[in-house]
TrEMBL record:
It comes from Palleronia aestuarii. Pfam families: PNPOx_N. NCBIfam families: PPOX_FMN_DR2398. This is Pyridoxamine 5'-phosphate oxidase N-terminal domain-containing protein. Transmembrane segments: none annotated. Residues 42-160 form the Pyridoxamine 5'-phosphate oxidase N-terminal domain. InterPro entries: Pyridox_Oxase_FMN-dep, Pyridox_Oxase_N, Split_barrel_FMN-bd.
């Protein structure tokens, strides 16, 4: 039977979960290991995972509820483990929207998800973040002599390994499921369409795409 495709949706109040007791009634109790595996510090296993990770997503939320998730990437081990309760994440050049950083200024609580290519499990870290411009710390996070403008220093509160089900279901690392990037418009085309500024001339769009790629090469750090 084919799935019904919705074109609009607003749930009826009777189908909305409005409190935690209702939520938990839908699921069986979690098992002891899922609770006991949570640490309050970076142990040897978390250290080994973070040192191998070239990619982390940072979840933040502002005082007014504005949420953001931002990807950060660098060579494996780019997140510095200062001690078993402290991490430092370099802030590399980006688009200067500063969504995550602005959130941290008003609400320091962050969630981190560390990913290692080829690994189906992930490492989750929750804590409180501070934006730091200490020259000594920034020097330790430099690449080819280029310092980040600031570092996100995270005071670790909880750490735990996350199961592989989401990555297994998505076939994320399976080449047989990789998709052809050319099937979607370029980043530049998507961004310009959002502002109704996309050029009608394909040659001009090609030049803009080339300029974007050139910018990637020159401004990664």
């Amino acid at each position: 039977m084919a799935k019904t495709k919705m074109t609009s949706y607003k749930p009826s109040p009777e189908y909305i979960i409005s409190n935690e007791s209702e939520l938990r009634s839908l699921f069986p109790p979690t098992h002891d290991l899922a609770i006991k595996k949570v640490q309050s510090y970076i142990d040897e296993h978390a250290r080994a995972f973070i040192e191998r990770s070239p990619f982390v997503c940072i979840g933040t939320q502002g005082n007014e509820g504005k949420a953001d998730v931002s990807p950060r990437g660098d060579p494996a081990g780019f997140v510095e483990i200062i001690d078993d309760k402290t991490l430092a994440i370099p802030d590399r050049p980006g688009n200067n929207r500063l969504d995550s950083l602005s959130n941290i200024v008003v609400n320091p609580h962050v969630g981190l998800l560390f990913v290692i290519p080829g690994f189906d499990d992930t490492m989750r870290v929750n804590g409180k973040a501070t934006l730091v411009v200490d020259p000594t710390l920034l020097e330790s996070l430099s690449v080819d002599g280029r310092l980040p403008k600031l570092a996100i220093v995270v005071e670790v509160q909880t750490v735990f390994i996350h199961c592989a089900k989401a990555f297994r279901r998505s076939h994320l690392w399976n080449p047989d499921h990789y998709q052809d990037r050319s099937k979607l418009p370029s980043l530049m085309k998507i961004a310009l369409d959002a502002t109704n500024a996309a050029p009608s001339d394909k040659g001009e769009l090609d030049r803009l795409n080339e300029a974007l790629e050139d910018g990637y090469q020159k401004t990664l750090y």
